[in-house]
UniProtKB/TrEMBL annotation:
This is Carrier domain-containing protein. InterPro entries: ACP-like_sf (IPR036736), PP-bd_ACP (IPR009081). Gene3D superfamilies: ACP-like. Residues 8-74 form the Carrier domain.
């Protein structure tokens, strides 16, 4: 099983935001609270990633609390994906 690329996850993140009339900025250092990306949005993104990978991801709540930027989300999803 192969993982999803950061670009693919970024595209999915953009789709979650677009459904709310929001746009994902190009800068990965953009803060999530500045673009209105909430925990519910993260949950939707995680479900989409799980569907794509056909596996359940194991979330660690303490680590999730440290996610503050677009890049943090991408890094977090990278770490959650199963290795080949």
């Amino acid at each position: 099983m192969s993982g999803l690329s950061r670009d693919h996850v970024r595209t999915m993140m953009g789709e979650v935001l677009a459904a709310q009339g929001k746009q994902l900025p190009a800068d990965d250092s953009t803060r999530l609270d500045g673009i209105g990306f909430r925990s519910l949005d993260f949950s939707e993104l995680a479900l989409r990633v799980e569907d794509e990978l056909d596996t359940e991801l194991n979330f660690d709540a303490p680590e999730l609390r440290s996610v503050e930027t677009v890049g943090d989300v991408l890094d977090f999803i990278d770490q959650l994906q199963p290795t080949a």
